[in-house]
Each structure stands twice: as structure tokens, then as C-alpha cells.
Design goal:
The structure holds 2 protein chains of 2 kinds. Chain A is an alpha/beta fold. In chain A, about 40% of the residues lie in helices and about 25% in strands. Helices cover about 75% and strands about 0% of the residues of chain B. In chain B, a hairpin with a 2-residue loop joins strand 2 and strand 3. The complex binds adenosine-5'-triphosphate and magnesium ion.
Chain lengths: ~260, ~325
């Protein structure tokens, strides 16, 4: 059984059919890329997994469990963490506080205990853990900085670190290297691979940057107009005529 | 460490205040303390959790009448009546949770306005319980045989409760609960994707806020000694709101400063006959224009400039509320 199974997923926004009977599966331990031109429906897949909307039809199963029965906050409890295309950081919190929100569900102290100031010990432990993670990313000195004023690329790393703080099984990354230069892109790619190995993660990532997709993905799924147009090893998908055509169409449109 | 010393000095000054201040000033200070607690409650809800309320006088009234009635009718000791008033008022906070889960922004504000208005309507009509428009006299507070019958004693009572409530608020704000409030306020979706339950944390926010305001109401009834429905009107809700906005949204020290300032302002202005309303209004406008982050933001501009941006500006917050 695959870790994540998406079957016949269909989503409509008004007249726009964002997803049209999309099916795919993600095997445990893999890094899978989800590619496609703008508006293909990639982010919509993530938002449906996050339970932000109800699909018109179809099923999503995670480790065999029907995800569509869950509320948005329960998705994380099952072990699915994500990042957002336009960053989902809390702008007025510090870097460290953002990471601690990632630990939210792991706190044991209840509301009364928190009000009475109990549970400081786990707070300290999580703080130390967050600092350790930041140090690994070379972001240690920024832990007290307010997120809103940091460079975009740095914030992308922080958001990934926050997702890791949740101790996920499956990580959904929506354009992790958008707006990054080549060096940062390479760093991010290596980091994703390293954490996958270390934490035993499965990664599903949306990305337009083909260097990242070709560099770290073991499998690629290509979408266009909400439908799957190709799936397979990265090189195969890149050579697929339907994929080339979809991207060519986009370039003509953009130009 | 410097902060600790600062707080120590402030605490000493407050503890010694009765040696220097007139009895009437102490009474105003006690009243200000009541508003500090209510403002803390509103700030936790509006400043931190982003749920706009302009109906908090309703909670203040429920707290005041609950504690007064518990003592007058059931003969409960007063020290028990205040936390009970807080708990009961906290539960009534869930009434507002219902619209809060369905409405956004300005529509929630209208619902809270309606709540405040409804409480103000029900109180005078429920004559058997509340004594109607005339109001009711509140029994003297007695603590273990000691009657709290002077302004000095009531001042110390208020001061201790304010300190406890401040410490609790600090704990809440610094915990995962405070972070969850801010997370939901600024990035609802990302917060949910981090496992924060919208329903649960909105419920906490409304309970805590109403609890604080209920405690404030309970204390109010004993400090003033007399309560009547007319005191808990829209003007009072707006007063608490302004204390929060002027002091600094999402700031605990700001709540203290805002409540103190607006409690004393009318007394400072009592010399300017006929001009009071004008100066009062002008003072508010000036504060909003020149201290966009409230009093506390103003203080921080010198003490911690790098942290300034963490406070939401009152005006911007309101604009964001309106836009939803
Ligand atoms: N909340 C929404 N309301 C209305 N339409 C939406 C919404 N979300 C997505 N859409 C539409 O659904 C389609 C798919 O959008 P989606 O964001 O999934 O694309 P994408 O593949 O992520 O594109 P990009 O690469 O530009 O991020 C688009 O036509 C988009 O306009
Ligand atoms: Mg997208």
C-alpha cells in the first residue's frame, strides 16, 4: 500500500475545473515531484490534502485512512506537514517562535497548566531542539529575529524547518526554491535529501525549477489542466511529448 | 535582570502608594485596576487572537452582578464570589464563540455589539434578580473576618488581583496558547496546517477573555459598592476597547498603561470646564496619530527598537478586520 493515495480527485472553483479526475500515489520514502505549468492544479492538490476545501469528487488516503473525513488541523496530527507557495510563516513572531508553533501538537501541558506557568520544562526542551535545527541550517544567529524582515530565501528555509519541527511522515513542499538563486537552490535540494534520509521522510514537492526536480526527485508526476499527463522517472517525464507541449504552450502564452 | 529590578521598583512604589496618595486617588487607582484586568481580557481576545469585540461591557456586567448576587443572596464569601464570577462569565463567553466561528471581521464586531446591548437590556428587566434600573447595593467585602471597608484596603485587594491576573496573562501569552492565538490571527491556514484547531483556540480565547472581564466585573462591584445596569453600556465597551488600542494591541504592559491613562484622563481634565470632551477627544486622536503602536510601542521605540514591529498597530488591525 502506498503512503498517499489520490484517486479520481476533482475540484471546481466556480467555472474553473482545477482538478479533473486526478489519480496518483506516493510510495513511502520517495521524493516525488509534482510539476506542470501555471494553473495546472498543483497547489490545489496540496490544499485538498490540507482539507482547506472539500473536493467535488474523489478520495485521498493516507496510510489507508480516508483524509477527507478530517478537519484541517487533524491532517498534521496524522503526520502530514506542508509549506506554502507564498510562505505561511507568522510574520510578527521571531524565527524561534515560528519553529515552536511547529511543535504545537507535541506539548503535553493543558490550558490550565499553561496559564499557571507549568510546562516550562517541555518548552525549554523544544526551544533547545529548535535552536539545534536552526544551527544546522546556519540560521542560529537569527533565532530572535522577526520573520517579516528576513530575506525571502531565508524564510523559505525557516518554513521548512518549522515543518520539520512537527515530526512529519510526509512533507508537502510548494515551490521550495521559488525566488532562490542557484546556490540557494542547490543548498535547499541537498537539505531536502538529507532530512529525507535522516528523518525517514516522504516528500511530495511542487516545483517549476527543473534543476531541483531533476536533481532530487525519484519520480515525477506532470499535470496540465488538472489532469495527469505523464508520470515516471524524471528523465522520462522531461522527454515526454505531452509535457514538452504543455510547457511550450505556456511559454507562448507568457511571451 | 534589569527588567526584574524595574518591576521590583514599580511594585515597591505601588505598595507604598497609600502613604503618599489621597484616599480618592486610591479609589481611582483601584477602579483603574479593574479596567486593567478587563483590558487584559480584551487584549487577549482582540490583540492576540484577532477577534474584534465591542461588547465587553456585557461580560463586565455579568461578572459584577454574579459576584454581588452570590454574596448578597447566597451569602457566599466574597473571595469565592470573584473567581466564581470569572468562571461563570467565562462560560458565557462561549455565546460569542458561535458567531465567531461563522463570521469574520466587522460582522463579528457587530455580533459582540449585539451581545453587549442584549445584556444591557436584560439586566434592568430582570427586576427580581437585579433590582431593575435602580441597581443594587453590594455587600461590603469581608476577607477572613477583616472588612475591606476603606479605599486603602480595597486598593491592596485590587493590586494583588491585578498582579495575579498579569502573571497568568504573561504565562498564557508566552506559552503555546499565546502563539496559537497569534498564529490564527495572522495566518489562519498555516496555523491549521501546524495542527492548531481553529474551534478550540477560538473557544479558549473567548473563555479566557470573558473570564478576565468577569473577574474585573466582580472586583468592580466591591470597589464601587453599588451597581446599576446603566453603567454597562456601549460607552463602557468602547472605553475598554480604547484602553486596549491606546495602550497597545497584543501587549500586556500596554493594557496596563492604556487602562491607567483613560481612567485618570477625565480627572486630569476636570479643571477645564466645558472643554473636557473636546480635550478628551483631541487627546485620543493625538495618541493614535503619534503613537501608532500605542503607549507601549512608544516606550519600546527607545528600549527595544528591534521588537517594535511585533506589535500590530491598532489602526492597521482595524483595517484588516474590516477587510476580513
Ligand atoms: N481558492 C481558489 N478560488 C478560485 N480559484 C482557484 C482557487 N485556487 C485555485 N484556483 C484556480 O484553480 C486553478 C489551479 O490553481 P493552482 O493554484 O492549483 O495552480 P498551480 O498549479 O499551483 O499554479 P502555479 O504554478 O501558478 O502555482 C487555477 O485556474 C486557479 O485560478
Ligand atoms: Mg501553485
Amino acid at each position: 500500500m502506498a503512503l498517499l493515495e489520490v484517486e479520481e480527485l476533482t475540484m471546481r472553483f466556480g467555472g474553473v475545473k482545477a482538478l479533473d479526475g486526478l489519480s496518483f500515489a506516493v510510495e513511502e520514502g520517495q521524493i516525488v515531484g509534482l510539476i506542470g505549468p501555471n494553473g495546472a492544479g498543483k497547489t490545489t492538490v496540496f490544499n485538498l490534502i490540507s482539507r482547506f476545501y472539500d473536493p467535488v469528487g474523489g478520495r485521498i488516503r493516507f496510510r489507508g485512512e480516508d483524509l477527507l473525513r478530517l478537519k484541517p488541523h487533524q491532517v498534521l496530527e496524522r503526520g502530514i506537514a506542508r509549506t506554502f507557495q507564498n510562505l505561511g510563516l507568522f510574520p510578527y513572531m521571531t524565527v524561534l517562535e515560528n519553529l515552536l508553533v511547529g511543535r504545537h501538537i507535541h506539548y503535553k501541558a493543558g490550558p490550565w497548566a499553561l496559564a499557571l506557568g507549568l510546562g516550562r520544562r517541555e518548552e525549554r526542551a523544544f526551544r533547545a531542539e529548535a535552536e539545534g535545527l536552526l544551527d544546522r541550517l546556519g540560521l542560529g544567529p537569527l533565532k530572535g529575529a522577526v520573520v517579516a524582515f528576513l530575506p525571502y530565501g531565508t524564510r523559505k528555509f525557516i518554513e521548512l524547518a518549522r515543518a520539520l519541527m512537527t515530526r512529519p511522515k510526509l512533507l508537502l513542499l510548494d515551490e521550495p526554491v521559488a525566488g532562490m538563486n542557484a546556490t540557494e537552490t542547490q543548498m535547499m535540494g541537498e537539505f531536502i535529501k538529507r532530512v529525507r534520509d535522516e528523518y525517514g521522510l516522504t516528500v511530495l514537492l511542487v516545483e517549476h525549477d527543473m534543476s531541483l526536480v531533476m536533481g532530487i526527485c525519484e519520480r515525477v508526476i506532470a499535470l496540465n489542466f488538472g489532469r495527469k499527463i505523464a508520470e515516471g522517472a524524471p528523465e522520462e517525464v522531461q522527454r515526454d511529448p505531452a509535457v514538452i507541449e504543455a510547457y511550450l504552450g505556456e511559454e507562448v502564452r507568457v511571451a | 535582570m534589569r527588567r526584574l529590578i524595574l518591576w521590583g521598583v514599580a511594585l515597591c512604589l505601588l505598595a507604598l502608594a497609600p502613604l503618599f496618595l489621597r484616599s480618592y486617588t486610591l479609589y481611582i487607582l483601584s477602579l483603574a485596576g479593574v479596567y486593567v484586568i478587563a483590558t487584559l481580557g480584551l487584549n487577549l481576545l482582540t490583540g492576540y487572537a484577532g477577534q474584534l469585540s465591542i461588547g465587553h461591557a456585557g461580560f463586565l456586567a455579568i461578572g459584577a452582578y454574579t459576584s454581588a448576587l452570590l454574596v448578597a443572596r447566597l451569602g457566599l464569601p466574597f473571595w469565592l464570589s470573584i473567581p466564581l464570577a470569572g468562571l461563570l462569565t467565562g462560560l458565557t463567553g462561549f455565546i460569542l464563540l458561535v458567531p465567531a466561528l461563522r463570521l469574520t471581521a466587522i460582522y463579528l464586531a457587530i455580533a459582540t455589539l449585539g451581545f453587549g446591548a442584549a445584556v444591557a437590556e436584560i439586566l434592568p428587566r430582570w427586576t427580581a434578580l437585579t433590582g431593575g434600573y435602580q441597581g443594587m447595593k453590594v455587600p461590603k467585602a469581608v476577607l477572613f473576618g477583616l472588612a475591606l471597608d476603606s479605599d486603602v484596603k480595597l486598593y491592596y485587594l485590587t493590586l494583588s488581583i491585578v498582579i495575579v491576573m498579569l502573571l497568568l496573562a504573561r504565562n498564557i501569552v508566552d506559552s503555546k496558547m499565546g502563539r496559537a492565538f497569534i498564529a490564527l490571527r495572522d495566518q489562519e491556514r498555516a496555523a491549521q496546517a501546524c495542527g492548531i484547531s481553529l474551534t478550540r483556540y477560538k473557544a479558549y480565547a473567548f473563555f479566557i477573555s470573558a473570564f478576565y472581564t468577569g473577574i474585573a466585573g466582580g472586583l468592580y462591584s466591591f470597589v464601587v459598592g453599588y451597581i446599576s445596569p446603566g453603567e454597562f453600556d456601549l460607552a463602557k465597551s468602547l472605553l475598554i476597547f480604547m484602553m486596549m488600542a491606546l495602550g497597545g494591541m497584543a501587549s500586556l504592559p500596554g493594557s496596563v498603561l492604556g487602562a491607567l491613562f483613560l481612567s485618570f484622563l477625565p480627572h486630569w481634565l476636570s479643571g477645564f470646564r466645558g472643554l473636557q470632551q473636546f480635550i478628551y477627544g483631541a487627546a485620543l486622536v493625538l495618541v493614535v496619530i503619534f503613537m501608532p503602536y500605542g503607549f507601549w510601542g512608544f516606550v519600546r521605540r527607545w528600549t527595544m527598537p528591534d521588537k517594535l514591529e511585533r506589535l500590530p498597530r491598532p489602526l492597521r488591525a482595524v483595517v484588516e478586520f474590516v477587510r476580513g
